[in-house]
Design goal:
Layout: H1 2-10, E1 20-24, E2 30-35, E3 42-54, E4 59-65, E5 73-76, E6 79-82, H2 83-88, H3 110-117, H4 125-136, E7 144-146, E8 150-151, E9 158-159, E10 162-168, E11 171-179, E12 194-197, E13 213-218, E14 228-236, E15 249-255, E16 259-261, E17 267-271, H5 281-284, E18 286-287, E19 294-295, E20 299-300, E21 306-312, E22 334-343, E23 354-363, E24 374-376, E25 380-384, E26 387-395, E27 407-412, E28 418-422, E29 427-432, E30 441-442, E31 448-454, E32 457-465, E33 477-487, E34 498-507, E35 513-514, E36 521-528, H6 540-569
Length: about 575
């Protein structure tokens, strides 16, 4: 009897729901309302204890195991294990076993178990351990379920942000989140088991759940064709990370056709301080042993791009590559995957650019320890752009007449390397440290030559041969290509999420001219001046030299003939 008095005085403390309101519905029935603002979940209530509820005192008395939803013994590997034996194995933070008597023996009645529960407050680990054990002994059909509450007064139902389970008998319940949204990027995650006593004065809180997030960065927003780009995929772990026994992460990455994944370039790092700049990965992150993750083979996508995945089966057991020691992870840790890809000759010029998208697949059911069920985040996208340079060679006197056969070499200011260009496609194929190794670019009948696949930055044109009749330029022509862009995290990636806003080029530090963002083309004009016929000096004097010279030649011929005749006469 003393136990029941103690139970009556503290039973209000049994409101252990992670986000629910319990209210009386009618004389003998009750409701449990789970506050979850996300649509698409299903909640089911299973009665643990039955009993008599006194609405004036809020006390549940005459407590028994529910005959509808609880079995007191289950088979574990061929051995019958009673519910009392399972509960007796629960240990509290002090190392004690609360569901045992003073002699260390398992409790033997539902009311004794209820008395122990009443001594704990919300979110205590003992309560969650109790829920985990009880879930194994649940049987039969749920006492009630809910797929959401809707306002149907208008033409279209409006979700209220609550899930109400109705027509419940008095008692103590375990509420299971039996399904979550499963559409791609819905971030569905199972909430921890909810415990609640039927009482008119129940707690009102949010469900205890959290999801990871994914963020993507890259080393080069703009690049030359052939450049290597480093990508950084950063997973933020959920606040409920400690609720999981194991925690799986799978990074799913898709590269567009203009990007070539560098096989073997994947590395994984852990940041335990929860904060980093992607340029600090190599110095501040802990490199994870390659044996702790797997990288899938490339899959070809319908648009010609490729995808691959990086799987960490359990982020709680990662080891350091340096010495094999265990890396301690927590909800404040960051898991960072890096890899490299080359901008290739299929790269899109300007326009939508060359996107790389990633989404995260993650453990989403702490009630199963973290294995099995998974959810997915929305995708995150980054874009690399590259551009086309069209140079027109014109007559310097009128500024419009195109000049054919002007020859140039292009080099970049950053390292002085000369562009190597495929003259069939006009695309960059590489860069040479020597001028001789650079490709000679020749203007066509329209006075134009083209270089495709350039990064933003400063370049110089060196004229190697002027058109016939024109003077070769004595100084190099300076070209500066610049661009701006914006990124909007809308949750679902579209080509509008990352946008090329402006594209400009300036020639010899002149006013920047707009390029065309949709095509990625910037245009520059280079002028050549004609050579001139140099004037002669001396006037008639030159003519006299020609006449005298002619007379001397004729005289020499006459002299030779005369001497020959005289010789013959002798």
């Amino acid at each position: 009897m003393s136990k029941l008095k103690k139970l009556a005085s503290v039973m209000l403390a049994l409101v252990m729901c992670f986000g629910l309101t319990v209210t009386a519905f009618a004389a003998d029935t009750y409701t449990i309302t789970v506050n979850n603002s996300t649509e698409g979940y299903t909640y089911a209530a299973y009665q643990i204890f039955s009993g008599d509820y006194d609405s004036s005192s809020g006390v549940l008395s005459n407590i028994e195991w529910s005959t509808d939803n609880i079995t007191t013994s289950i088979d574990v590997n061929g051995t019958a294990v009673s519910i009392y034996t399972a509960l007796a194995a629960i240990k509290d933070d002090n190392g004690n076993y609360p569901f045992t008597d003073t002699n260390g023996n398992a409790l033997t009645s539902a009311s004794d178990v209820a008395v122990v529960l009443a001594t704990y407050s919300n979110d205590n680990a003992v309560l969650q351990d109790f829920a985990d054990v009880i879930a194994d002994y649940i049987t039969g059909t749920a006492a009630g379920t809910s797929t959401g509450d809707y306002d149907t007064t208008g033409s279209d139902p409006v979700f209220k942000g609550t899930y109400t389970i109705s027509d419940l008998a008095a008692g103590y319940y375990l509420v299971k989140n039996t399904s979550v949204p499963t559409s791609a990027g819905s971030e569905g995650v199972y909430t921890r088991y909810i415990l609640a006593q039927t009482t008119a004065n129940g707690a009102s809180e949010s469900p205890k759940s959290s999801v990871p997030s994914i963020d993507k960065d890259l080393s080069d927003v703009d690049a030359n064709i052939g450049d290597t780009i480093t990508y950084y995929l950063t997973a933020t772990l959920p606040s409920t990370y400690d609720d999981y026994s194991t925690y799986k992460l799978i990074f799913h990455d898709t590269l567009s056709k203009g990007l070539t994944y560098d096989t073997g370039s994947v590395k994984v790092y852990v940041f335990t301080n929860g904060n980093y700049g992607y340029d600090q990965v190599l110095t501040n992150g802990t490199l994870v042993s390659a044996s702790d993750y797997t990288v899938s083979s490339l899959t070809t996508e319908s648009d010609g791009g490729h995808s691959f995945s990086v799987t960490l089966t359990d982020t709680k057991t990662l080891t350091a590559d340096s010495d094999g020691s265990t890396i301690s992870t927590s909800s404040s840790s960051l898991i960072v995957v890096t890899f490299e890809a080359d901008l290739n000759s299929d790269a899109v010029i300007g326009g939508a650019g060359n996107p790389n998208e990633v989404y995260l697949e993650y453990s989403n059911n702490p009630n199963s320890g973290g294995s099995g069920d998974t959810g997915t985040t929305p995708e995150d996208k980054v874009v690399t752009w590259t551009y086309e340079l069209d140079v027109t060679k014109v007559d310097g006197s009128d500024g419009t007449t195109p000049l054919k056969d002007a020859k140039f070499k292009l080099y970049r200011e950053s390292d002085g390397y000369y562009a190597i260009v495929d003259l069939t496609t006009n695309k960059i194929t590489g860069w040479s440290a020597t001028k001789d190794g650079g490709t000679e670019l020749t203007s066509d009948d329209s006075g134009i030559f083209t270089v495709i696949g350039l990064d933003v930055g400063t370049y110089y044109l060196t004229e190697t041969e002027a058109p016939s009749g024109y003077n070769k330029l004595t100084t190099d022509t300076k070209l500066v290509i610049a661009a701006t862009y914006t990124k909007t995290d809308s949750g679902t990636p579209t080509n509008d999420d990352v946008t090329l806003n402006t594209l400009t080029i300036s020639v010899d530090s002149g006013t920047a001219a707009n390029g065309t963002t949709s095509t990625g083309i910037v245009k520059a004009t280079v002028k050549n001046n004609k050579g001139v016929a140099m004037p002669s000096t001396g006037g008639i004097g030159t003519t006299i030299f020609y006449v005298v010279g002619g007379v001397l030649v004729v005289g020499a011929v006459v002299l030779l003939i005369t001497r020959k005749r005289m010789k013959d006469d002798q």
